[in-house]
Amino acid sequence: MAKEILARLQSAEMRKSKSDKLIANYIERNLAELPFETAKSIAARLDISQMTVGRYLRRLGFDGLDDLKAVLRRGRSNPAWQVKGSMDRFQQDIKDGKLLAGLVQQQIDNLGMIYELSTKVEWQQAIEALISASEVHVAAYQNVRGIAQYFASQLSYTRPRVTFVDGLNGTYAEVLDGSVEGRVLFLHDVRRFASKARPLAEEARRAGVKVVLLTDEFCPWADEVSDIALVVPGSHGPLWDGAATMTAVMDLMLSNIIVLMGERVDERVQVLTRLQDVFGDFES
Q: 116 to each of 93, 113, 123, 232, 256, how far by Cα in Å?
């Protein structure tokens, strides 16, 4: 399918105007990176309107960029984390200092977007849900599993009854059995999305569990399966998907929770510190 798309991009019909050539050349050269693009980002890179990109994609035979991405996904394997460009180019860029500088700037830009997220009503709703829940169950998969476990561990220092659920029992009964009211599922999933994530969110809501979903801009079903959706910038290269943005979001959420809970956190940390001393897990 990718070969067919490339052949059409190179046809005279799809290169009639200056904007046609700009878009065709961009898609042709960056086909592997399209999962990390939006029509808006392509328009910004080419200094043309988003509407122009949309019209071009329809002429190309697709109902927008998401439709093109879906066709490409069906036509090839798409690992969750993958190198997205020429290693020779990366090696030269790192010698010139361009690569690391670009990565740092991307993180700075993403942090600005995270701050904007923290001012939205969904953010405060998520914080309040995590504080007031009778139990908080944290779930994540594959590459992001580790940082979700980190979040669950840190959250357990602020409040009791926080667990990371791995689903190895095959039922997620600890979340879904309905034995305790007021539960919250904090679900973390990003591109490439885990097959279990959406069914778990749907079953949780069916069981009366409030679902807080932390995901990225590539998630097409965020609002459909969650009570509260926190959507952050997705990874746009240039190497592979990193965890810095999501980790920053989680740290800010924890800080917000600590401030709002105040002395209750101090009291809990003292209890946990005493228990750590009893069991000797840390050096004195």
A: 31, 5, 10, 10, 14
Parent domain of 36: 2-78
Report strand pairing: 183-188 vs 228-232.
Answer: unpaired
Distance of CA 284 to the CA centre of its chain: 38
Q: What is the CATH number of the domain that holds 223?
A: 3.40.50.10490
Residues 57 and 174 in one domain: no
**H helix or E strand, kind and range, residue 136:** strand 135-140
Q: What are phi and psi of 166, to 5 degrees?
A: -100, -10
pTM of the model: 0.65
- What angle, 0 to 180 degrees and rounded to 10, lies between the N-to-C axes of helices 98-118 and 121-132? 70
Band of pLDDT at residue 79, cut at 50, 70 and 90: very low
DSSP states of 33-54: GGGG--HHHHHHHHTS-HHHHH
- pLDDT per residue over 199-210, tens digit each? 999 999 999 999
Strand partners, 186: 138, 212
Tell me, yes or no, whether 35 and 118 share the same domain. no
Q: Which position has the token pair 């990176």?
A: 33
Residue 275 within a domain: yes
Exposure letters 89-128 (e unless 16+ CB within 10 A, then b): ebeebeeeeebeeebeebeeebeeebeebbeeebbebbbe
Residues 52 and 145 in one domain: no
pLDDT at 110: 66
